[in-house]
Fold each of these.
Amino acid sequence: MAQDFRFHSVRVLRPTGFHAMAYTQWGDPQNPDVVMCVHGLTRNGRDFDELARALSDRYRVICPDVLGRGRSDQIPDPAGYAYPLYLADMATLIAHLNVETVDWVGTSMGGLIGMMLAATPGNPIKRLVMNDVGPFIPKAALDRIGTYITKTLTFETVDALEAHLRKIHAPFGDLSDRQWAAIAAHSH
């Protein structure tokens, strides 16, 4: 079942009404052993495809697209992009999965969401793995993100998008051409 995944969504309640939060599910949908993989600020759940594929024989792997990203609904009010609301969205998703506990893998923003959930009394997080995040985010990193997050860009081709992503996401490390192509394919 190593490549078996399905797209789903759950309706989450926000001050602006209900919104669809999309997620990709890997592995046996009845497996009570769940790993949640939550992406960074400008990314989406498909960033975890390789990890999810590797874990899906043992776990049900859930990779949500946080609202405003990927296949999830956009939020009409900019105030809707806030951590307390993300926590409520993830609590809704975990309840929807009908499991008592989850293992959490979070990159950057996804790590912060996981850390905040794990700090909440009675939380469902059994194990927490965080990548590219800590209690302090250097100003240089915030400035770098600020150079591209506020811009609306269009690209003539997926190759042009990939070239842009290679530049702004260079800190992702030494990725293969196949990995960069996958990032571009799931980012347009």
Note: The longest strand covers residues 5-14.
Amino acid sequence: MSKKRIKLIVFLAIILLVAIIFIFVILPRLTGPSQGSVLNPSVVEDAKSKQLAFDFTPKTITGVYVSFTVPSSMQVTPNSKMIGPVIETHNFAYRDVETWNLAITVLSVPSGNLKDDSSYSYRKQHPDVYQESHTIIANQPVTIMADKTSGGFKQVAFLVHGGRVADISLYGDDASGVDKLKTTLMMVITSWQWLLG
């Protein structure tokens, strides 16, 4: 038998093998009923509710100059380096529609005047962007600056005590609205305690 004839037989055998595989293995999968999985709607809803669950159980944070509580769902994030008049910082985050950021900064302001806090002064100079309001919460005067130009929740609360000022800023959004963010900010302010005089 010549080499040419052997090559032809091998070639035909390979083509026959490919045709058999295609007819008996691949073709039934292509033309047969499709397979999939059906999810139980209650399982899907349960997963969504767990994802949206927010734990408001108070978690106490005690620093050098201040003490306060935050909801347990808020996770501690690295603090930025303290420079200038900043004497204490606390940062927290929570992930929902977007990341919530809770940043607490305590500054030394010897005059005891809120106007000497650059964060407050900047917002005061831009009334087209920030709306100022004043209230008493837990027997302390609180000034709140709300960003009125963007969606979601963007507020900074300012508390003054002697020669110290606290800037409590909370930015974020939530699938169910801003009520959880408002409650979180109020939890921090109502639990606020000044330490060391």
Note: The chain is about 30% helix and 35% strand.
